[in-house]
Specification:
By secondary structure, this protein is mainly beta. About 15% of the residues lie in helices and about 35% in strands.
């Protein structure tokens, strides 16, 4: 598989980070999300175009997926994108129950789950957020020694392709352009 990277602009993200096939993804997970406060050189994700397991309440989100994840147009951003592609880094987002308010995120490298004693990631819908617009991403490294890399996921494009109030805030915090894995 060849890696093709292209540069996109954030100000029209709803036109290129969008659904192209129906996957039974719950509405609460539809749209585009901004990783507000993320210290790594990546900014936005979408769960569109990924198969939702309705029975087991999980999906697999490839960090290297085509138009799934945005990276900074920098050496660090390119390095992270390349590392994700090379290792086939994927997040298994496993929800606790049908409310879809709490999930465990299991990183997979070469399809092998990283043990929770090394990393433990969670995603929790903020109590007063509407329709899953805001989620807290928590991290625990090596059994709880550190919580480095935590951030807030904010929906910037809703399920209908409309920009949310968080969109302008995102534009003020990111560079004008980003890198993505191109659609083949």
């Amino acid at each position: 598989m060849t890696l093709t990277i292209e540069q996109k602009q954030f100000d029209d993200i709803a036109t290129w980070m969008k659904p192209i096939k129906e996957t039974k993804l719950p509405d609460i997970l539809k749209g585009v999300f901004f990783m507000d406060g993320n210290p790594l050189p990546d900014d936005c994700i979408t769960m569109y175009n990924l198969e939702w397991d309705t029975q087991n309440l999980f999906l697999l989100l490839p960090v290297f997926g085509e138009l799934q994840w945005t990276f900074h147009p920098s050496i660090q951003g390119r390095a992270l994108l390349f590392a994700a592609w090379l290792t086939r880094c994927t997040y298994k987002i496993q929800f606790e129950d049908e409310t879809l308010r709490q999930a465990r995120i299991i990183p997979l490298i070469f399809d092998i789950p990283i043990p929770t004693w090394i990393v433990s990631f969670t995603m929790s819908q903020v109590e007063n957020s509407q329709n899953g617009d805001t989620w807290e991403r928590k991290n625990s490294w090596f059994g709880g020694i550190s919580s480095i890399g935590e951030y807030t996921l904010r929906r910037i494009v809703d399920k209908d392709g409309n920009y949310t109030p968080a969109f302008q805030n995102m534009l003020a915090k990111v560079q004008k352009n980003c890198l993505v894995v191109a659609r083949e």
